[in-house]
Amino acid sequence: MSTLNVQGISLSYETHGDPEAPPVLLVSGLGGVGASWGTQIARFTEKYHVILPDQRGTGRTTRALDGHTTRQLAADMASLVEELVVGPVHVVGASTGGAIAQYMALEHPRLVRSLTLSSTFARFDAFTRREFEVRRRLAAEWDRRDLLSAYALFLFGPRYAREHPEAVVEWIDRAAALPAHPDDRRIGLARIDMIAAHDTFARLREIAQPTLVLCGEHNFCTPLPLSEELVRGIPDATLIVFEDAGELIELEQPVRFFTEVSGFIDGLRDPARG
């Protein structure tokens, strides 16, 4: 684990794989911790130079109480890419990470080679807003393990939860075991407010990078209509739907997820890298 002082914080990150390989920035979801990519880290490492950050307020990065906007987190990620001199990068963003990735493409375009937007959104709709109003109340009142157990109902598809109950419990146990910090609840609420405020809808047409959009058919956290809206707005974006999957498609269908993303990345010809 390494750190860089950028944007007023100490940003913690890991790098994996061959530095000469195409660079891939993996931007995680609401929890913000790079390790949440699980087995995808090893898969991407076999083919790419992987940059794996902990976002502002999470993991080993400074537990800042300010700066919780998707635009600011995009600036954090862009500063990391610049400091490491690895851009332009293929940005793979899951959920919250996909919202951050949109601002990277919009406001730091020279650093972004392509976008993969997984289980994400340009803005909340009525359903998602009601969902996160409930989730915010739970986050304000419940202890960590009970909260994660409730979150699992939103994040895993019904068939996966039925057929792999032990994997769902393992996910809850692993997340519950992460080191606690006195400001975790306050930061968690700020991050929910952050994604509820995210809105790039009016600017989607400005995204010029090749874009792949992925979503589970039974995603109850950031449902399929939100991904369809992204594809309608981003020029030439492609949508792939994962049947019988929920929000965490990278965990539920790991082989297919990597196959789709790596196929997309490898299909792009970058004259600067050969």
Automatic annotation (TrEMBL):
Stretch forming the signal peptide: none
Ranges for domain AB hydrolase-1: 22-250
Cellular component terms (Gene Ontology): membrane
GO terms for MF: catalytic activity
Gene3D superfamilies: alpha/beta hydrolase
Chain segments annotated as coiled-coil in the UniProt record: none
PANTHER family to which the protein is assigned, alphabetical: HYDROLASE, PUTATIVE (AFU_ORTHOLOGUE AFUA_2G14860)-RELATED, MONOACYLGLYCEROL LIPASE
The protein's name in its UniProt record: AB hydrolase-1 domain-containing protein
